[in-house]
Amino acid sequence: MTLTLKPDLKLLMTEQAQQDFAYWEQHDQAMAGRILKLLKNLAQGHTFPAQQATQLKFGNLSLISLKISTEHRLVVETLREQFIVHQCRFHY
Prior knowledge:
Blueprint lengths: L2 E2 L5 E4 L1 H13 L1 H15 L3 E2 L4 E6 L2 E7 L5 E6 L3 E6 L5
Parallel strand pairs: 2-7
Antiparallel strand pairs: 1-3, 4-5, 5-6, 6-7
Helix pairs in contact: 1-2
């Protein structure tokens, strides 16, 4: 599976994702930079390879997990005109 998003999507972050990102900013600037790069690539409509993106099903939500590291994942929900980051720390 490859993941491609439209480049005009608006980024939203849940409170959990904001807390996760704040943790990375305080404790690991390299990881925070990696997350920002992934988010920028999402916003620009880049394609992600199958080994980096996994489709998740959680109730009615269509979530996508992007590998940040061996332990951590960026979990994103795509909607019509926006994508919502649900978490950017730990495994789903």
